[in-house]
């Protein structure tokens, strides 16, 4: 059993009916294996298919096709064994209970009443113990959900946009708690649309756009890929053909509004070649803005609709 992956998704697909009787392929062939102990960011823009994938992983939605295994079993089995727990975006908390009551109820279900104080302290809820859930901010409610998810001491924790609604300080505090938790060997898969968040916390980034995985690798590799300089210019087809011949590894990322966006392993070589191309005009070099680069990386993957 040692080599059994924490998560094994094979060719997962799920589509929904969209407006005007169109079909939205929310998840369009996702295969993913996560080893025990990995901390993986599922990173992609809004609408990429992250929540739909996580819902299938948790057994909340049935795939149209493909398979889901969690520690070698079905999601349902993994959930009932307490091996998997989740912090989801919506619902789940009773507004009239206090924070302490909420944590105590779930703790009693898992026979962990003795640990309530420790869990509340670890998740920064001690000072909120007597407050009604309805009076907690969005960020505080996320922390309550996190506390509840850790109570069964799951092997795999799945978090969907866990810091949505938190300010910068709350976000930082949340991740430091998470980091401490993951250091104890828990497998964590979290969805986010913040590249910085994925970069700061995950060992591995799985980049998703248009229902497909567009990149998957160690965080440092994805950061380098996303952080590469993009050089753009107005350039004709003949010059472009010549450029692809003389610049090693040059890649055409996109052609938009008459402008061609290019990248190469050595962006200086690429820029120099463009400046030396007589008919290339308005050469621009984009800096290391991670968010822009992330958008460029995911821009090519458009969802198939029919
Ligand atoms: P993400 O979590 O990355 O923001 P989602 O998985 O929520 O993306 O959504 C992927 C796509 O599927 C989006 O286009 C969304 O509008 C669509 N979608 C998700 N759930 C439904 C649903 N229940 N009915 C119709 N369309 C849906």
From TrEMBL:
- Family annotation (CDD domains): ABC_DR_subfamily_A
GO BP terms in the entry: response to antibiotic
Where does the UniProt entry say this protein principally localizes?
membrane
GO MF terms listed in the record are:
ATP binding; ATP hydrolysis activity
Which InterPro entries does the annotation name? AAA+_ATPase (IPR003593), ABC_transporter-like_ATP-bd (IPR003439), ABC_transporter-like_CS (IPR017871), ABC_transporter_ATP-binding (IPR050763), P-loop_NTPase (IPR027417)
Do you know which Pfam families this protein is assigned to?
ABC_tran
Q: How does it sit in the membrane?
A: Peripheral membrane protein
Q: Where in the cell is it found?
A: Cell membrane
Q: Which SUPFAM superfamilies match?
A: P-loop containing nucleoside triphosphate hydrolases
The question of whether Transport is a record keyword is answered with yes
Keywords noted in UniProt:
Antibiotic resistance, ATP-binding, Nucleotide-binding, Transport
In this protein, which residues make up the domain named ABC transporter?
7-235
Q: A single GO CC term, please?
A: plasma membrane
Q: Where is the signal peptide?
A: none
| Protein name listed in UniProt | Putative ABC transporter ATP-binding protein
Q: Which organism is it from?
A: Gordonia amarae NBRC 15530
């Amino acid at each position: 059993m040692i080599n059994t992956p924490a998560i094994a998704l094979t060719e997962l697909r799920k589509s929904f009916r969209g407006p005007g009787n169109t079909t939205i392929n929310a998840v369009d062939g996702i295969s993913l294996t996560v080893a025990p102990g990995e901390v993986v960011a599922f990173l992609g823009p809004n609408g990429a298919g992250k929540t739909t994938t996580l819902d299938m992983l948790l057994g909340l939605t049935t795939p149209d096709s493909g398979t889901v295994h969690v520690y070698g079993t079905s999601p349902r089995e993994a959930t009932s064994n307490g091996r998997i727990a989740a912090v989801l975006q919506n619902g789940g908390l009773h507004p009239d209970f206090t924070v302490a009551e909420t944590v105590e109820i779930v703790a009693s279900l898992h026979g962990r009443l003795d640990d309530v104080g420790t869990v509340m302290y670890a998740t920064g809820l001690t000072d909120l113990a007597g407050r009604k859930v309805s009076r907690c901010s969005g960020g505080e409610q996320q922390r309550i959900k996190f506390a509840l998810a850790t109570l069964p001491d799951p092997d795999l924790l799945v978090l969907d946009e866990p810091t949505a609604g938190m300010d910068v300080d709350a976000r930082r505090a949340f991740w430091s708690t998470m980091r401490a938790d993951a250091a104890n060997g828990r497998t964590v898969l979290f969805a986010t649309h913040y590249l910085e968040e994925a970069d700061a916390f995950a060992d591995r980034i799985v980049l998703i756009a248009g229902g497909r995985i567009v990149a998957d690798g160690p965080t440092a590799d994805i950061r380098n890929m996303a952080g590469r300089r993009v050089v753009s210019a107005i350039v004709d087809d003949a010059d472009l053909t010549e450029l692809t011949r003389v610049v090693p590894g040059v890649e055409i990322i996109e052609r938009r509004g008459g402008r061609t966006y290019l990248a190469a392993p050595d962006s200086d070589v690429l820029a120099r070649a463009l400046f030396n191309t007589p008919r290339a005009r308005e050469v621009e070099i984009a800096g290391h803005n991670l968010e822009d680069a992330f958008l460029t990386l995911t821009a090519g993957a458009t969802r198939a609709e029919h």
